[in-house]
Amino acid sequence: MHGIKKPKASNFMRIFYTFTILFFSYSILAKNNWPDYSKEIKYKTSIDSTYQAMMSFVSPSDKKRPLLIALHSWSGTYTQTGWQNDALQWCLENNWHFIHPHFRGPNWTKDACGSDKAVQDIIDAINYMKQNHKIDTQRIYLMGSSGGGHMALLMAGRHPEIWAGVSAWVPISDIYSWWQENDKHKKYKKYARHIEKVVGGRLDQNKFAREQAQLRSPNKFLSAAQKVNIDISAGIYDGHKGGSVAFTHSLKAFNTIVSEKDRIPKKLINTFYKKQSLPSELPQASKDPLYQKKELIFRKQTQHTRVNIFKGGHEIISHAALNWLKEQKKGKPAIWIPSSIYTLSQSINKHKSGL
């Protein structure tokens, strides 16, 4: 007598189980769905005594641990997720502290977009963590992309005394220039309107608006960040078909920080952007495994500052950002090549910066 054969699961059931597992795994890192190990905190600000929110994760270690500050994009808030989930997962797996502050929310009000209030909110968020948890102050890291890249560079220039490392991706370095680039752009003109709401009028018609734009631009302050370890990255297609922020913003931010002898000639920057190909006068970058399929096209560095142009658009490669940040210490020269590469156990594998 033959044994009774166990019935095979139907194709439908196999697909159902597979989908369920994948959906559950992804939901941990899905947009606007922060995992259970993160926590929303509200802290009192010093500039106007309001309570501002941030998402956080606290290392369970009884020793001082690094603090990573992730910054939301131009139109984002403290609840925005995407690459931020990779940053949070990194902190969980590497026993770091993590915060994702609101800093007055989307950049279409005067209190946001690099205002004194927004800057101080980030400082107050860091101070809250220092007062309540064990923070290694030699390893406080900052990362952001797009509007978050703008704020990361602004914070580097306005408070260079804090940072061990700053990783800025596809950043806006000059608000007036970005307004000009988007003012009549069919797809991106809404960002010009956002800026006008922030600064109080059209920048070509209003002196006060231009002054406000300058005060909210990283390039006004970045000369103070020459000794901060800063890594600036952008995709070569950004500003063309690949996104709303020309990669010239990254190259010009680099030039603002470094000494004159290390600057990239303005003519070559313009040619590079216009043709979307590397001018013959500039060297081709060596391969970097952290960039994976996003091939490096151009790279230039000094002791503390580096700029990278890669084959991509308006996006962030969190794997590259986090592995670079982990090597940096405040007051020490930048370590450009990580001693080891850490890969997250899970990732959404989507690194668009968001706007």
Automatic annotation (TrEMBL):
Domain of life: Bacteria
GO terms for MF: serine-type peptidase activity
Keywords, in A-Z order: Hydrolase, Membrane, Signal, Transmembrane, Transmembrane helix
Entry's Gene Ontology BP terms: proteolysis
InterPro entries: AB_hydrolase_fold (IPR029058), Peptidase_S9_cat (IPR001375), Plant_Biomass_Hydrol_Est (IPR050955)
Transmembrane segments: 12-29
A Pfam family that the UniProt record links to this protein: Peptidase_S9
All copies of domain Peptidase S9 prolyl oligopeptidase catalytic, residue ranges: 116-190
Protein name: Peptidase S9 prolyl oligopeptidase catalytic domain-containing protein
